[in-house]
Amino acid sequence: MTKVEVLKSLKEIGLVPVLRAESVEKALALAEAIAAGGVTVLEITMTVPGAIQVMRTLAEKRPDILIGAGTVLDAETARACILEGAKFVVSPALNVKTIEMCHRYSIAALPGALTPTEVVTAWEAGADVVKIFPASALGGAKYLSSLKAPLPQVEMIPTGGVSLATANDFLAAGAFALGVGADLVNTKAMAEGKPEIVTESAKKYLAIVKEFQSKS
């Protein structure tokens, strides 16, 4: 899958679940529960113990899932993730060398930024999409709308504060896609043996995105 195709898929699916878990096994179980709800994009964060193994396993067993690496802080980590199947790389902050590494492998780079200066710096450094994080800290969807007004050319994925209640507001504010954390990646439900809760949540998020897209 080319970078252009990856970005197209991210836009069409409209969701990037941020997967955090305590082990490889729990991460894989969460991935299956989310995918069962029709959301075939996952950001595997480097905070997951054995995150590289999770990416490798999913790349081999679930080629239908678009795998991204999250919480990537440096170029060396980005390269390791790319070699194990990551098709996009997400960072909580801006690291120019990480963007350059993604360019070397023709992989989509999604660095994090929050202020207008950071957003423009990331875009000029070659970001394909800028992750606005933590979006909730400065007003959520209203802040995203404020950023998009002078910077309509910059594609943005808000993360932090995205929920079923706010998803439509973020989309209306101009989000390229939605970065969704614990509201979808529900580790508590999984610990209680209720993966169906995660699956149903994935379906609800997908329905919101599809309804918005149909009206746009």
Order of helices and strands: HEHEHEHEHEEHEHEHEHH
Point out poorly predicted stretches. Answer: none
Helix content: 40-55%
How confident is the prediction overall: mean pLDDT? 97
Ends distance: 27 Å
What does the model show?
- The protein is an alpha/beta fold and 216 residues long.
- 47% of the residues lie in helices and 15% in strands.
- It contains 10 helices and 9 strands.
- It has helices at 3-13, 24-36, 51-61, 75-83, 96-104, 116-124, 141-148, 167-172, 187-191, 195-215; strands at residues 15-19, 41-45, 66-70, 88-90, 108-110, 112-113, 130-132, 156-158, 178-180.
- The strands form 2 sheets. It has a 6-stranded parallel β-sheet with strand order 5-4-3-2-1-9, sandwiched between helices. Strands 6-7-8 form a 3-stranded parallel β-sheet, with helices on one face.
- Helix 2 crosses helix 3 (51-61), helix 2 crosses helix 10 and helix 4 runs parallel beside helix 5.
- The longest helix is centred in the last third of the chain and has 21 residues, at 195-215.
- It is globular, with a radius of gyration of 16 Å.
- The protein starts with a helix and ends with a helix.
- The mean pLDDT is 97.
